[in-house]
Amino acid sequence: MKLAAEATTPLTARTQPIPDPGDLTAHLPHPTALAWIHHGEGIVAWGQTARITIPGGPHRFTHAARRLSDLFAGAAIDDPLKLPGTGPLAFGSFTFDPATDGSVLIIPRHILGRRDGHAWLTTIGAPTADPLTLTRPPAPPTGLRWGEGTLSAHDWQKAVATAVDRIQGGDLGKTVLARDLTVQAAQPIDTRVLLSRLAARYPTCFTFAVDRLIGATPELLIRRTGDRIDSLVLAGTTPRGTTPGEDRERAQRLYRSAKDRREHAYAADMVRQALTPLCTDLHVPHRPQILTLPNVIHLATPVHGTLAAQHSVLDVLAALHPTPAVCGTPTAPALDLIRELEVMDRGRYAGPVGWIDTDGNGEWGIALRCAEIDAHDPTRARLFAGCGIVADSDPAAELAEAQAKFRPMQEAFQG
To answer: What is the DSSP string of 56-117?
Structure first.
């Protein structure tokens, strides 16, 4: 575990109720930001009290939970609100592939939050004079140059065709293939600008930032509040139309599509199977709903349940990830095919991203509709998008779907 200097002694944390701060992203003092925002509420943070790096392996969520628990143990906490998200907490982001290193948990220095009529500022470590002082104004990215990622559009369609052949041959039922794009800016990319644009345009999504990974995911993997858990399964997608009538037509076609309903059922059934052993009751509707976002239309299934024991949100993540929505089914052959055909390291794209507090509460999404800023060259970033592939998938249609899923991050860069 790598710790910042402030964490060499037991943690101290003080939460203060404050007046409504308005736009949370407007108070981030510098470009290096942490965030989790939904409908304008949530938490943003900056600074680093402690950083836990988590190696790949089958028990990485358990490993992360144990090390975080050790760090929180003995912390001196002054928290009059005692709400989920107040007091000290950690933001986290895990790699998609369980075998890959690069997962991280970060305990920030300052946390600004707003939820359900309450607003607060948490400081971990020694208090500072004015933590909300803007040290560097946000600077929109300029001089953007876009490039193909690991595979060209043509080569990616060939990979999709190969996956369809394998599925039709009976190797597996579904896989999910992702592709990337690159962007180069004239100056280092300011996380705050991307966050502000994403939160404004996609308020129903969960806008996040953790250690250079920024995005607006529509998929809530798990929310734990006490013994209650909630999830939102998304699988089956079509691009938006150009008129309300075309949107309705596309939504109806998506809902009636045997291919998309089958793709969605794989994901919903897996979530049901993973959560049932952890819950005293679990509600998973048998039919999906339609979820319309500014760029795409999804099939969606909301899931609600009550935990049977004191499982933290990281315990539930361990049971869920990777879901068929981002990997495929069965998991092992789907993951093997991803490793073979994508020809790239997803890193933390399509992995869990979110936060956890000292009581094990938290909200975690799947890192979709996102970009990762290069750690060595902050003027560069990679954008990611992926599509579920089943037996009757069409490579050209999947490419169009991926292009639609790139739009949120492209718009965030271009303004």
So the answer is: -STTHHHHHHHHHHHHHTT-EEE-SS--TT-SSEEEEE--SSTT---EEEEE-SEEEEEETT
Query: Residue 32 phi/psi, 5° resolution?
Result: -80, 100
Buried b (16+ CB within 10 A) or exposed e, 135-148: eeebebbeeeeeee
The count of structural domains within the chain is 1
CATH number of the domain where residue 408 is located:
3.60.120.10
Closest CA to 293 of 344, 379, 234: 234
Q: What is the pLDDT of residues 96-149, one digit of tens each?
A: 999 999 999 999 999 999 999 999 999 998 877 677 776 678 999 999 999 999
Residue 138 structural domain: 2-414
Query: What would the pLDDT profile of 225-240 be if each residue is shown by its tens digit?
Result: 999 999 999 999 999 9
Residue 306, strand partner residues: 228, 281
Q: Name the catalytic one among 219, 263, 342, 372.
A: 219
Decide: 292 and 247 in contact? Cβ < 8 Å. Answer: yes
Active site residue 259: no
Q: The pTM is what?
A: 0.93
* 275: enclosing H helix or E strand: helix 258-275
Q: Which of 148, 174, 372, 411 is catalytic?
A: 174
Task: For residue 263, report the phi and psi dihedrals to the nearest 5 degrees.
Answer: -60, -40
